[in-house]
Amino acid sequence: QVQLVESGGGVVQTGRSLRLSCAASGFTFNNYGMHWVRQAPAKGLEWVAAISSDGGDKSYADSVRGRFTISRDNSRNTLYLIMSSLTVEDAAVYYCAKDPYFGSGHYYYFDYWGQGTLVSVSS
Amino acid sequence: DIQMTQSPSSLSASVGDRVTIACRASQSISTYLNWYQQKPGKAPNLLIYGASSLQSGVPSRFSGSGSGTDFTLTISSLQPEDFATYYCQQSYSAPRTFGQGTKVEIK
Q1: Which bin fits B64, alpha (ψ -120 to 50), beta or left (φ > 0)?
Q2: How near does any CA of chain A get to the CA of B42, in Å?
Q3: DSSP label of A112
Q4: Minimal C-alpha gap between B5 and chain A (Å)
Q5: Chain B residues within 8 A of A116 when measuring between CB atoms
Q6: pLDDT digit string, tens, across residues A74-89
């Protein structure tokens, strides 16, 4: 069965950096695009970033472009999100999510989600 | 950006009730509309994609309809495990945006 397990969250000061990881199993990782989606405390969902199956195509929400970098290591079945210049507005649970498109494209919806990792930003 | 607006923001219903949640897009999105269920402390779960296609493993009491700008999620007979928050999401254009959520509570 598909499993996505995030890690790397924690408390960080404003302006600092953090790297999130998402370990994938139960499917052929290098055949699917992946996403990060976040949810601020008691708030709604916000798509953050996407990466194609081969890592060659990346896209970002305006709110994080230039500060966050999505990447993947297909040899390790792992997705990453490097977050820099963090602000209090970045505090949220970060979910990795699988795109159901088989191949190098995206459908831009999310058929499997991890359990999330909490990022808290202190000023 | 395409704005997604759900109504109502919350509702109270009883087990066995038929429940309908609406989602309106600020511009036409064809049928690029998806629905998720989220329970407290858990990740969202995909229910419906492409406006009306039922995700594998999702009970048939869930259904979706609509196209263009107006969409609905219907639960034909509410079950105890369906009390949760429901989100719509458009996958038509960047950035792919979510509605604000509809919380379904026990009456």
Answers
A1: beta
A2: 7
A3: E
A4: 12
A5: 43
A6: 999 999 999 999 999 9
